[in-house]
Amino acid sequence: MADKYDLIVIGGGPAGYLAAERAGGAGLSVAVFEMRTLGGVCLNEGCIPTKTFLNSAKIYTHALHGEAFGVRAAGITLDHAAVLRRKAEVVKTLVVGVEYKMKENKVTVIRSEAEIVGRTNGGFVVRGGGYEAVAGKLLIATGSKPVTPPIPGVMDGLSAGYVCTSREILDIGYVPESLVIVGGGIVGLEMADYFSVAGAKVTVVEMADKIAGPFDREISRILQRNLEAKGVVFILGAKVTGISQGAVVAESVGGSVSAPGDIVLLSIGRRPASEGLGLERISVLTENGAVVTGRHMQTSVPGVYAAGDVNGKVMLAHTAYREAEVAVNHMLGIPDEMRYDAIPSVIYTQPEAAYVGETDESAATKGLRFIVKKLPLTYSGRYVAENEKGDGVCKTLIDEGSGRIIGVSIVGGNASEIILSAGAIVSLGIPVESARRIVFPHPTVGEIIRETLFM
Known about the structure:
With 455 residues, the protein is of the alpha/beta class. The protein is built from 14 helices and 24 strands.
């Protein structure tokens, strides 16, 4: 006999656990199937663990170069084993917090894989770990998996351990002498930053002619320049053709190149984890593995929703949170819909890079007529006080017709925090004249956004 619920959530990552928390808090009976640890990739092997790594690297770098700020210290070292221990403690603390939220909101957690069996008069039937549940509403929140490219030598390397994904690199017990990162996106750049500071010789191989994917090209160049100053070598416009123990071979316009690497990190993207769920049994539409959703996060089947990476739209944890809220609100009859035009994206290197809305390239591709306002971060007194010879910049895009701010890109310390203000301005469609009247605290680096509007 299946236990009955109002909502079954498959997946306990950011989308899944937040949806369960919101729905449970609203009085719905909720069950969550999670085969691993609550918190998903973000909390256990992504967003949070990488930030503990990067914060340690930042503290170490500040201490190492403190003389410019009047701080002299000797014998500074970065203890990778200690970094790993702290990472584990941080993750444990946050996982316990998620578990508490489930209990607080009376959510039943089933520690098992889940399979959609079909549907009955009572709703959708899900089975896993010898447990069967049925609910009138179903949320698919199974996240994503790293892409494993069909490159000769990859599978052998994964089996032998000298090739790894973003999951394994966060548990590696030592700093390799040399590290090759295949892919110059967010994860690849963050790991390049940490391991170069920790002492590894890092090479990043990227197929595109620039790093950081959709980020503004100028922002990407500045970020690359700063990482190169730390010793990171970039091979751009190159396609990896083979991986063996000790080396990665790639082909570029200039010919074949070889990069030495004791460890190879595959970081070329992720794909929705939708296979094996039984979606076909209830006729849920997918495209290239991604569950198709509308503006209320509902799938092709009424009562079935999908949030987070599994829908393949914007694979970021904060997107998953918002999608989960929209899905639950729709279940509860609360008017709401998902927007993707003002979702911030951040690279947490040192310096950080962030953008929200349109970039020069995306706006031009869409045929938008826009004005670019740009200032170096040295216009900020706070930035000058805290950064020695920093080369950060802030770019603001303004729609020519409406005068509304449609995008902001920034590279520099604490860009991840500064972009929040820009995100609110872009999301609300605030025009320049109104934005100029917003009072930013002084001295802050964030007031650079307002300063660009007076150029």
